[in-house]
Amino acid sequence: MAFKIVVSQCTQCGACEFECPSSAIKFKGENYVIDPAHCTECEGAFETQQCASVCPVPKTCVPA
Where is the 4Fe-4S ferredoxin-type domain (predicted)? Predict the structure, then answer.
């Protein structure tokens, strides 16, 4: 399973893109998106998902 970004809540700050250890987050069009083929949910690298931990808006990076 992968994480997704709730577009309506995203402030487009970009913090998540730089913290993602699997480089699964990219800016596409006018929004940040998480590529489910690359998202590892930070398993094996971190205890918590880095996108969710750095996002300034709670519950914007959530399980898909």
Answer: 1-30
What DSSP string runs through 5-24? E-TTT-----HHHHH-TT--
Tell me: the pLDDT tens digits for 13-41?
Answer: 999 999 999 999 999 999 999 999 999 99
Rounded CA-CA distance 8/31 in Å is 10
Tokens of 36: 């489910």
Please provide the size of the chain in residues.
64
The pTM is what? 0.90
44 contacts: CB under 8 Å, gap ≥ 6 = none
Q: Which two tokens stand for residue 64?
A: 């898909």
